[in-house]
Amino acid sequence: MTIIVYSKPACVQCTATTRALAARGLEFELVDLTEDAQALARVTELGYRQAPVVMAGDDHWAGFRPDKIGALS
User: Fold this and answer.
1) Most buried of 12, 22, 55, 58, CB within 10 angstroms?
2) pLDDT, position 55
3) What is the H or E stretch that residue 54 is in?
4) E strand or H helix that includes residue 66
5) What is residue 39's predicted lDDT score, i.e. its pLDDT?
6) CB pairs under 8 A, 24+ apart, for 66-73?
7) What's the whole-number average pLDDT of the chain?
8) Nearest to 43 by CA among 55, 35, 59, 56
9) CA 68, CA 36: separation in Å to the nearest integer?
10) Tens of pLDDT, residues 23-54
11) Contact 22, 59 (CB under 8 A)
């Protein structure tokens, strides 16, 4: 399963999310929303207004969600 974390600089929830994924040994791609206009458009179209936005297979969510991250491992 591919995991993509759409993030932005100096985002506490983004850092917590990537640390939790790494701690579980899950590989992920990190995309900076401030540098990728297409990525920003994609998450905006999905209705998200906060970072991080995590796409994990068919599931996606916003914010630091330890419950969702735990379900991936």
Assistant:
1) 55
2) 97
3) strand 53-56
4) helix 66-72
5) 96
6) 66/20, 69/17, 69/20, 69/21, 69/24, 69/26, 70/24, 72/1, 72/3, 72/21, 72/24, 72/26, 73/24, 73/25, 73/26
7) 96
8) 55
9) 25
10) 999 999 999 999 999 999 999 999 999 999 99
11) no
Domains of the chain: 1-69 (3.40.30.10)
What number is the average pLDDT over the span 2-24?
A: 97
The residue written with tokens 């068919």 in the block is 58
**Global pTM value:** 0.94
Cβ–Cβ < 8 Å for 54, 48: no
Q: Which amino acid is at 40?
A: L
As a whole number of angstroms, the distance between CA 39 and CA 24 comes to 25
